[in-house]
Amino acid sequence: MSQPLLDIRDATKIYGGGFMSRGSVTVALQNFNLTVDDRPATITTIAGESGSGKSTLANLVLGFTEITSGQIIYRGKDVAAMTRQETLEYRREVQAVFQDPYAVYNPFYRVKHIFDMAISNFKLAETNQEKDDIIEEALNVVGMRGEEVLEKYPHQLSGGQRQRMMVARAYLLKPRLIVADEPVSMVDASLRAMILDIMLRLRDEHNISFLYITHDLSTAYQIGDRIYLLYQGSTAERGDTMKVIEEPKHPYVKLLVESIPVPDPTMHWGDEAITTLDDEEMRTSATSGCRFYNRCNARMDRCLQDMPPLYSIDGAEHEAACFLYEDKPEVVQP
Fold first, then answer.
1. Parallel, antiparallel, or unpaired for β 6-16 and 69-74?
2. What is the CA 240 to chain-centroid distance, rounded?
3. Cα 97 from chain centroid?
4. Model's pTM, two decimal places?
5. CA–CA gap between residue 203 and residue 208 (Å, rounded)
6. What's the rounded Cα separation, in Å, for the pair 70 and 31?
């Protein structure tokens, strides 16, 4: 069996505190584990509401922030212990597509600049003709042509064009993994479908895996192979995307799936009273109990003391971090 492409082991990120500070801490991500196989390429969805730790995970994988504890291992090497050359190769093979298609461009440069910089930094072409061919191939993959966009400034492109350009720039480097952080949240429905289709084609035709960061379970259901549902930095449930969304087990995930709007004209929104709870109080210590305790209708005393591990559901690749399933025969790592 080949080694995984990406292996995240007990990744934890804590903000605040430290040797020189006695202030409060926030556990942004706790004991997170994830494995992305080398082949076949897959789309692994990291889903959850705002503040659940999705973007923290993306930043850790991309190297934008340092991990507090745990390991991120890429093709058998700990990212934190890579040599300069290995780090450069990692930067090429692990690319990013960000949420905001406006903020990622320098308005003073024509859009061709993003391709020129990538090719120059990674020495991908020796001649201008070779460079032009590489750029044109990347643009064609996302349904664009160089003559239509390369000499324009960012403000002259639509949001959908800008986002497809970013996908093309990532593809140009021939990555093994793309971290896509909410890539379709700021484009309209038609372009959303186009970008999701591009992701599927990159997976199937070019063996590029994705970490797809989203709060939208409908798009996760459309394209995701596996899904990890995060709640306040910890994994609530994970497994096959269709299995998890169609048959959720964790109390939080059940509520999340039930909250997806149904096109029913007889349903009136706002009929139920809205209550707010201080959810963050469970997030100030890495040793506290279940993060969902305050909102859970099935909570028990032990939930306040211990963080539940991930329990296997029916022996399948479907796990939920809830003591309701502690009588199951198999327990996996969180």
1. antiparallel
2. 16
3. 10
4. 0.88
5. 5
6. 7
- For residue 40, is the peptide bond before it cis, meaning its omega torsion is within 30 degrees of 0? yes
- On the 0-12 / 13-18 / 19+ scale of CB atoms within 10 A, 214 is buried
Whole-angstrom Cα distance, residue 320 to residue 236?
6
Asked if 291 contacts 282 with a C-beta cutoff of 8 angstroms, the reply is: yes
Whether pLDDT at 332 is above 60: no
Q: Where are the alpha helices (DSSP H) in 104-145?
A: 112-122, 128-141
Examine the pLDDT at 131 and tell me if it is beyond 60. Answer: yes
Would the pLDDT of 179 be above 80? yes
Say which residue the tokens 């800008």 belong to.
162
Integer Cα distance of 203 and 41 in angstroms = 6
DSSP codes, 56-81: HHHHHHHTSS--SEEEEEETTEEGGG
The DSSP H or E segment spanning 199 is helix 189-206
Q: Phi/psi of residue 294, each to 5°?
A: -65, -25
In one-letter notation, the amino acid at residue 332 is: V
Parallel, antiparallel, or unpaired: how do β-strands 318-320 and 234-240 relate? antiparallel
Closest CA to 236 of 311, 173, 297: 311
- What CA–CA distance (Å, rounded) separates 82 from 59? 17
Interval 262-290 mean pLDDT: 54
